Amino acid sequence: MDFSMSRRQFLTRSGQVAMAAGVGGSLLAACGGGSGSNSSSGPVNLTFGWWSNTPAKDNSMKAWIKDFEKANPNIKVKPEILPWGNYWDKLKTTTAGGNAYDIIGMSSGMAAPYFDSGALADLTTFSDYTDATKSLSPATLTLSQWSGKTFALPIGTSISVLGYNKALLDAAGVAAPDPVKAMTFDEFKTMAKKLTKIQNGKGVQYAINPTDILDYDMFIRMNGGKTFDNPVNPTKVTTNNPEGIQGLTDYLSLFTEKLAPPYNELTNGPGPSTSVLWIRVKSPLRVSDPGSSPIWPKIPTMVLRRSLPSSSQ
C-alpha cells in the first residue's frame, strides 16, 4: 500500500498528540474524499490508534471520538487503545507493512522516523488545513513539520510538574510553597537544603528526585535557551551560550550540592507510590509528567522560575 498516495492516511500528534475532533475534525472529514476536498456524502470508516494512559483518559478519548461522530454522522472511527509498549510495536510493524491506522497518535519523541518514512500524508495538501490550524501556536505546530511538510496536528503539550510531600516538609519545619507565586531557583535551593539529610557522608533523604534524564533540558529552557536547533529534527546542539551554560550549571548544582541523589541511586519508575514517598529514594520533591501516575492530581505542586536580576523581580 502506497501511503503517500492514500488520502485517508494522515498523522495527528499530541505532545504528547492525537486526533482533535474540534481542531482536526475538518481534516478528518477531508480524508475520505478527493485530495484536499471535503468528505464524500457516503459512509467513511477510519481506524485510530493510541496508547493507554489511565482508564479515565482512555474513556475521555473514546467520548471525544463519539462527539466527533455525532458532529459528522457519515464518518465512523474505530479506535484501538493499547498499552504503551504494545502500541509502538504494532505501529512500527503496520507502518512498515503498509497497513497502519488511518489516524495515528504520536509522541513528539517518537515522531522523526515516521515523519521521514514517506508513510504519512502532508496535511497542507488538504483544503481545510489553513482553517484548521489558524488557532494553533506556530511554535507548537513546528513540532509537527518535517522537510517543509506538516504531518500532524498537535492537541496538547505535556509539562513537568514539581510536586512535594507535605508530611516531609512539615517534619523539616519548611512552609508549604506558594502554589501560584513562582519561586526563583536560588529560593528553591535554600528550601531544598533544609530538606536534605546527609548522615556519615551518605544521603538518607534528598530534597528532589529528578528521575527524568531530560531534566537538564528543562533547566536550559527555564533560562531562555534550547538544547537543539530543532526538537524533532535536530542537526546541532545549541547549549554553548549564556542561557544554555546557566541551565546546565543550575542542573548540575542539584548534584554537586547534594540536593539530588547520584544517578546510581535514581529510578525511572512510574511515579510516586501510594504512600506518596518516592520510589527507592526518599525525597520531599519530585519533577515528573503529571500523566505518569493517577495519584498526581492529589499531590500539591509548586511553581519554579529561574533567578532573575533583582531589578526585574
TrEMBL record:
It comes from the Bacteria. Keywords: Cell membrane, Lipoprotein, Membrane, Palmitate, Signal. Residues 1-29 form the signal peptide. This is ABC transporter substrate-binding protein. The keyword Membrane applies. Pfam families: SBP_bac_8 (PF13416).
